[in-house]
Amino acid sequence: MTFKLPELPYRTDALEPFLSKKTLETHHGKHHQAYIDKLNKLIADTEYQHLSLHEIVVKASAKGDTAIFNNAAQSLNHSFLWESMSPEGGSAPVGPLGDAIDAAFVDLNGFQEAFKKAAVSQFGSGWVWLVVDSGGLRIMNTGNADTPIQRGAQPLLTLDVWEHAYYLDYKNDRGQYVDSFLSDRVNWAFAARNFEAIKVEVAA
Ligand code: MN
C-alpha cells in the first residue's frame, strides 16, 4: 500500500503561541511528508508493501531493516504527535487517567516534573512518552525514531524532542518548549481515550 500524509487535526496556526505556523508547516508538510515519501519508495515491491504501518515497524525492527524501520516509525510517531497536541489542550487529566497519574506520580505536578526531566535529558534526537507498561503508567524516552511499540509498551501521549520540532520557536531552550506544551497544549482527552481503550482490552 502507499501511505499518505495524514491531515493535521487543526490549522497550522492553531497551536500558537506554543508552536508557530511556520514550525507546524515545516514539521508536518516537510519532515513528516519526507518520512512517508521515503517509506513508500523503500517498501515498493518488497515483503512490506501490503503491511500496515504498525506491522512494518514491528517487522522491520525484528529484522534489522534500519531504513524501513526509521521511516515507518517516524511516520507513526508523528501521526501520534499531532494528536498529542491540541488548541484546547492544557488543564488536567480527569477520570480514570487522572487517578492513574496520581497513583504513578503522586499528582499532576509530579508527572509534569518527571516528563520535563525526561524530555530535557534525552541526549540528541528522540521522543518522550507517557506509556502503559506492565499494567502501570510510566514515562519512557526513545532515541531517534525508536518507539514504545517495539518494546511492547502502549503509548498514551508523546512529545517530539528532535530540534526540528521546536528550534524555530525556542532555539536551544527545550525546557521552555516542554513547559509550554504541558501548560497549554497537551491533549489529555487523547491520552484518556488511549488509556480507556487499553483498559477495555485488559478487561476483555
Ligand atoms: Mn519530528
Q: Would you write up a description of this structure?
A:
The chain is mainly α and 204 residues long. The chain has two domains: 21-84, Orthogonal Bundle (Helix Hairpins); 95-203, Iron/manganese superoxide dismutase, C-terminal domain (minor pseudopilin epsh fold, 3-Layer(bab) Sandwich). It has eight helices and three strands. It has helices spanning 21-43, 53-63, 66-84, 95-105, 108-121, 167-170, 174-185, 188-203, and strands at 126-133, 136-143, 154-160. Strands 2-1-3 form a three-stranded antiparallel sheet. A hairpin with a 2-residue loop joins strand 1 (126-133) and strand 2 (136-143). Helix 1 (21-43) packs antiparallel against helix 3 (66-84), helix 4 (95-105) packs across helix 8 and helix 5 (108-121) packs antiparallel against helix 7 (174-185). It binds manganese (II) ion. Manganese (II) ion is lined by residues 27, 31, 78, 160, 162, 164-165.
Along the chain, the helix and strand elements come as HHHHHEEEHHH
- What hetero molecules are in the model? manganese (II) ion
Global morphology:
globular
Structural class, by secondary structure, is: mainly alpha
Distance between the termini: 31 Å
